[in-house]
UniProtKB/TrEMBL annotation:
InterPro entries: ATP_synth_F0_asu, ATP_synth_F0_asu_bact/mt, F0_ATP_A_sf. Keywords: ATP synthesis, Cell membrane, CF(0), Hydrogen ion transport, Ion transport, Membrane, Transmembrane, Transmembrane helix, Transport. It comes from Leifsonia stereocauli. It is found in: Cell membrane; Membrane. Its main location: membrane. Key component of the proton channel; it plays a direct role in the translocation of protons across the membrane. It is a multi-pass membrane protein. Belongs to the ATPase A chain family. Pfam families: ATP-synt_A. The chain crosses the membrane at residues 36-56, 96-119, 126-146, 201-222, 228-257. This is ATP synthase subunit a.
Amino acid sequence: MNLLVPSATDDGGFHGPSLDEFFPPGFLFVGTPFEINRIMAIRILVTIVILVLFWLGTRKMTVVPRRGQSIVEMLLGFIRVNIAEDLLGKKDGTRFLPLLTAMFITIVAMNFTGIVPGLNMAGTGVIGLPFLLALVAYVAFIYAGVKKHPASFFKNSLFPPGVPWPIYAVVTPIEFISTFILRPVTLALRLLMNMIAGHMLLVLCFSATSFFLFTAGGWYSLFSVGTFAFGFAFTIFELFVGVLQAYVFTLLTAVYIQLALAEEH
């Protein structure tokens, strides 16, 4: 078998992806709280691009929309109809639409940088941004619940009506953990792990392609066709995953807000 597969441990051999790629060195303001590394630069760049694109798409809005305005309106309409109003109704959907819109667009844009040549890293591939977005969702659903049911939100969340009092010794800790701890944690980790896995797969496929084509040489170069094909397929798949994860994250945020607004509170 060793005669058929190039060694991954030889000098100049194949080296797979590593988690070290998610912790690049800083290049600006190094050693300060404002240190900027490659991932932070990607996040700043994406933020600027989002602002510029929306400014260009909405600066001269007309009754008959042009291409840029049409794209913006389609995107905003999808979020408004299929997430906000579908789950929260027209009134509450309108209230929380700016939050849900910003969340969806930010996650999609940050996810897509993982397949952009020259960037090759999702802005959501490190825990900071997923955690911040999960914290925003956490604050949003608690705010919604407290504002709608100021006297009973926490009480009914931790002590569901209709449960015999002795059972609360078991139910209350479970409700506390599932509602106030697991919700933000699972939101952040689901997004983070999907982006890490996607990056690892892409790096593995394309680094293997480079190895077989330029380093191994000979008949081994034929393997590069297969690894490149897998890399291309995973790239297309990452586009789907990037949108899906943004949709799931935003949808679950809307679900948590809807549960906080429910009348039983």
